[in-house]
Design brief:
By secondary structure, this protein is α/β, with parallel strands linked by helices. It folds into 2 domains: 17-334, ABC transporter type 1, transmembrane domain (ABC transporter transmembrane region fold), CATH 1.20.1560.10; 403-664, 3-Layer(aba) Sandwich (Rossmann fold). The chain contains 22 helices and 10 strands. The protein has helices at 20-29, 34-68, 71-119, 123-127, 131-173, 175-183, 185-220, 223-231, 235-288, 293-334, 394-400, 413-423, 463-469, 493-499, 514-519, 527-536, 540-545, 563-577, 593-607, 619-624, 642-648, 651-660, and strands at residues 356-364, 438-447, 452-456, 478-483, 486-487, 500-503, 581-585, 611-615, 627-632, 635-640. The protein has a 6-stranded mixed β-sheet, sandwiched between helices. A 4-stranded antiparallel β-sheet has the order 2-1-4-5, covered by helices on one side. A hairpin with a 2-residue loop joins strand 4 (478-483) and strand 5.
Length: 665
């Protein structure tokens, strides 16, 4: 028996609560497994009945068979003593199969529903949710829910049936001894409560120290953290810091083990008191001839089983409610409302021409708290660390998570900076004047089939946000975006995704082969199609020079490749997708001249014959554009061709002189 549930017995208002609605919803997931559940109940009744037989066999052997010297019956009873555990074992195996079928089946349904819901959440959800919290919901909370189905509920039912059956049998045998065996239970509960506070505090400290150690490992052992440690020469400091955290885990673990052992000692002593009283009084009854020696032996066996069953039931409420809360965490995600919703009769795009229109579009990063995950308290686990290195006070960190809203309630400075962070690049200065509540305001333009539209402007002006609206990563706050005359909100999401190809400035590659990363755009692509796309992106020759060619593993987030190589693979991936509308952040200023030249040449091939929306960083792209949109503070302040905008002598002319014109030097 694990003692951790005793640490939760006196948590007061910290105790998790289970509602009727939660229980009904959990049981709804078990509807498809009623036959398995019924089979489990039958096996529990069988094993409970078998457990009652052994003490009765002992009583018969002691009181009847041995005094009568009945060898034949003694042999049969011995065979029965062997057959009962064997039969019990077979039934337990069958029960475990039924149990796991129900538990794993329900968890499969939950996990699939949870992942499907997360796949349909908007980008806004992911930019405001910790990835660790999502992993915890998919792993820890789902496992906790599985424990509720596979262990907690089964144990409660088993212990309850066993306790009732044992009490009935014991009361029929000798009601006085039964009352004596029960009357010592308050002593056990009082002792457990005294140790409960100490164990609870130790358990909390253990969770906190483990969380701090795990957070430190997560921060320093990923590719970015490891790179930072090495660049700043902090290897020795991180080793010492980790030793301190590991030492804390060690020390609290030792203390927890000692206090836990003390509990078992006290429990053993109290159980011994009950056993001594029962055998003492029972022995006196034997001497007085009230009942036989066999009866007191059988009664003692039942007593041990009863204490075990009651002990399990004593901790059941906390264990059950704790496990049920895991379901609540999973259901919270499943119930989250979606930002991006596909209409029931959405129109699939066919034969896409590539006509794109923004009609008076406005957008802000306002966060609706009802569409985000709440901060959660997981009973029995501590997974939130305020600060990994400084170990700042958790209350301070919690206060810091309360994001201050602006006067009009449209979100915080952190959300307004999201656009500037996403769109910043070398050669642009991050002007504080771009901070605002509304990311985009009354944006209107038309991109005709095959045109190249260049977006230029200061960092944070709204360029990246504009491109994010095209594939419906976000929906506009107001206004309409149309493709081939169809409102994006009326279009089937899958067909919209097929019509649009996007290459962001920060290229993301899976930790897999180059082939897998390329075919993510087209699962059934042939080798010839893959190579054709790679040639168009000027990356095929590089790939073929690698020892494993297209089967080369690119590493975590593609870190084994250079920036230019990653961008060209991203371009090849988009070419393989063959979209009619292309959205590009063609930042190349951080690349070497050879990579930049290769990418510029590849871009010309990619954009040929497609409607292209490009966040332009190069003069060559701007000069080739059919229309240049100059953005500032979320608005289109100028638009036209290069010559027309130069003649205006406005913001574009200023950007041209400070950023683009130097390419001529």
């Amino acid at each position: 028996m694990h003692y951790s549930w005793w640490a939760s017995m006196r948590q007061g208002d910290e105790k998790p609560k289970v509602t009727k609605q939660l229980l009904l919803r959990v049981f709804a997931y078990a509807r498809g497994y009623w036959w398995n559940i019924a089979g489990m109940l039958v096996t529990i009744l069988i094993t409970t009945g078998l457990s009652l037989l052994t003490p009765l066999i002992f009583r018969n052997m002691i009181d009847v068979v041995i005094p009568a010297k009945d060898v034949n019956r003694l042999v049969w009873l011995g065979v029965a003593l062997l057959a009962i555990p064997a039969l019990t074992g077979v039934v337990n195996v069958f029960q475990r199969r039924l149990n796991s079928t129900v538990g794993e089946g329900v968890i499969y349904d939950l996990r699939s529903s949870l992942f499907s819901r997360l796949q349909r959440m908007s980008l806004r959800f992911f930019t405001n949710t910790k990835s660790g919290e999502l992993m915890s919901r998919l792993n820890n909370d789902v496992v906790g829910a599985q424990n509720a189905i596979s262990n907690t509920i089964v144990n409660i039912v088993t212990n309850l049936i066993e306790a009732i059956a044992l009490l009935i049998v014991m009361l029929t045998m000798q009601w006085q001894l039964t009352l004596i065996s029960i009357v010592i239970l308050p002593l056990f509960i009082i002792a457990a409560q005294r140790l409960g506070n100490t164990l609870r505090d130790i358990a909390r400290q253990a969770m906190e120290t483990n969380a701090q150690m795990n957070a430190h490992m997560n921060e320093t052992l990923n590719i970015g953290g490891a790179l930072l440690v090495k660049l700043f020469g902090r290897t020795r400091e991180e080793e010492n810091r980790f030793r301190q955290r590991a030492a804390s885990v060690r020390d609290i673990g030792i203390r927890r083990a000692v206090v836990g052992s003390s509990f078992f000692v006290i429990f053993g002593l109290i159980t011994a008191v009950g056993t001594a009283l029962v055998y003492g009084l029972g022995g006196w009854y034997v001497i007085e001839g009230v009942f036989t020696v066999g009866t007191i032996v059988a009664f003692g066996s039942y007593l041990g089983q009863l204490y075990g069953a009651l002990q399990g039931l004593a901790g059941a409420p906390v264990e059950f409610s704790t496990s049920m809360v895991s379901f609540e965490r999973v259901f919270e995600v499943i119930d989250l409302p979606q930002d991006i919703i596909e209409k029931e009769n959405a129109t699939p795009l066919r034969d896409v021409r590539g006509e794109l229109e923004f009609d008076n579009v406005s957008f802000d990063y306002h966060i609706d708290p009802s569409k985000l995950l709440k901060d959660v308290k997981r009973y029995g686990r501590h997974e939130d660390v305020a600060a990994v290195l400084s170990l700042a006070d958790k209350k301070t960190a919690d206060d810091g998570r309360q994001t201050p809203k602006s006067e009009n309630g449209r979100g915080s400075a952190i959300n307004r900076r999201e656009e500037r962070t996403a769109s910043s690049s070398d050669g642009e200065t991050d002007s504080p004047s771009q901070a605002r509540d509304v990311a985009l305001e009354r944006i209107s333009f038309v991109a005709h089939r095959g045109q190249l539209i260049a977006l230029v402007g200061p960092s944070g002006a709204g360029k990246t946000t504009t491109t994010y609206l095209i594939p419906r990563l976000y929906d506009p706050t107001s206004g309409v975006i149309r493709i081939d005359g169809h409102d994006l909100k009326d279009v089937a999401l899958e067909s919209l995704s097929s019509a649009i190809g996007m290459v962001t400035q920060e290229t993301y590659l899976f930790h897999d082969t180059i082939r897998t990363n390329l075919t993510y755009a087209k699962i059934d692509a042939t080798q010839a199609e893959i190579e054709s796309a790679a040639r168009a992106a000027n990356i095929h020759n590089f790939i073929m020079d690698l020892p494993d060619g297209y089967d080369t593993i690119v590493g975590e987030r593609g870190y084994r490749l250079s920036g230019g190589e990653k961008q060209r693979i991203a371009l090849a991936r988009v070419i393989l997708k063959d979209p009619r509308i292309l959205v590009l952040d063609e930042a190349t200023s951080h690349l070497d001249s050879e990579s930049e030249s290769l990418i510029q040449e590849a871009l010309k091939r990619v954009m040929a014959g497609r409607t292209s929306i490009v966040i332009a960083h190069r003069l060559s792209t701007i000069l080739a554009a059919d229309l240049i949109l100059v953005m500032d503070r979320g608005k289109i302040v100028e638009q036209g061709t290069h010559d027309e905008l130069i003649a205006l002598n406005g913001l574009y002319a200023q950007l041209y002189e400070t950023q683009f014109n130097r390419e001529k030097v």
